[in-house]
Amino acid sequence: MKHIYYPLEAINCYLLNRYFELFIKYEKVSMEQVAGASDVTKASIYYYFKNKATLFTVSVSSMFQRITKQTEKLLQNSKGLKHRLYEVTLDHLKRPHIDFETLLQEATSSLTEDHIHEIREAEKAIHQALENVFKQAANNGEIVVASPQLLAYTFSTVTMIRNKKELINELGGPEKTAQALVDLFWVGISPN
């Protein structure tokens, strides 16, 4: 039987854009299931990926790279920092999201230190993009901040509310929720 090999990017696109949810139950997913869901042969998967851990690492790292590029693009807007944070928050609220930390925890037993390092470095790039914009805003006097890195991680955590669909609906949808989150982040909870 002749095997058809697909380009790495095609396999990644299938996995990341349509079938990433397969990895939600990492331990229960076989490479055969990934190939079937991706509409490629199992041989194609193994041509590019040594094992499931490598496939998972490349897929997750690629996902973080896409998120970083999108975040950087939104942060390049010439409007003020508060508006740019709103755009990033709204974008995050509108995109489907999985609980990454739970997923990584489930996969950790089969990942090497190198796999975990690669994933964490890709994730770190998102925070670095945010940290850079907070540093720039502090240097321009737009914000007062002790730690741009802490702000970056805190802001990322704030946007994780996208998992709470009922709350987003209750607050009036993604636009109003994004505005409320940015206002809370920007002003805090102390009285004026």
Q: Can you offer a commentary on this structure?
A:
- The protein has 192 residues and is mostly helical.
- It has a domain at 66-98 and 112-187: Orthogonal Bundle (Tetracycline Repressor, domain 2), CATH 1.10.357.
- It is 68% helix and 0% strand.
- The chain has helices spanning 8-18, 31-38, 42-48, 52-75, 81-94, 100-107, 113-139, 148-158, 165-170, 174-187.
- Helix 2 packs across helix 3, helix 4 packs parallel to helix 7 and helix 7 (113-139) packs across helix 8 (148-158).
- The protein is elongated.
Write the layout of secondary structure elements.
Layout: H1 8-18, H2 31-38, H3 42-48, H4 52-75, H5 81-94, H6 100-107, H7 113-139, H8 148-158, H9 165-170, H10 174-187
Helix pairs in contact: 2-3, 4-5, 4-7, 5-10, 7-8
β-sheet strand percentage: under 5%
User: What is the rounded distance between the termini?
Assistant: 73 Å
Could you state the order of secondary-structure elements as H and E?
A: HHHHHHHHHH
Q: How helix-rich are the residues, as a percent range?
A: 55-70%
Dominant shape: elongated
Q: What is the annotated CATH architecture of the domain at 66-98 and 112-187?
A: Orthogonal Bundle
Low-confidence stretches: 1-6
Q: Characterize the main sheet.
A: none
By CATH, the topology of the domain at 66-98 and 112-187 is Tetracycline Repressor, domain 2
Put simply, the count of helices is 10
Mean pLDDT: 81
C-alpha-based Rg, rounded: 19 Å
Label the structural class: mainly alpha
What's the number of extended β-strand segments? 0
* CATH class assignment of the domain at 66-98 and 112-187: Mainly Alpha
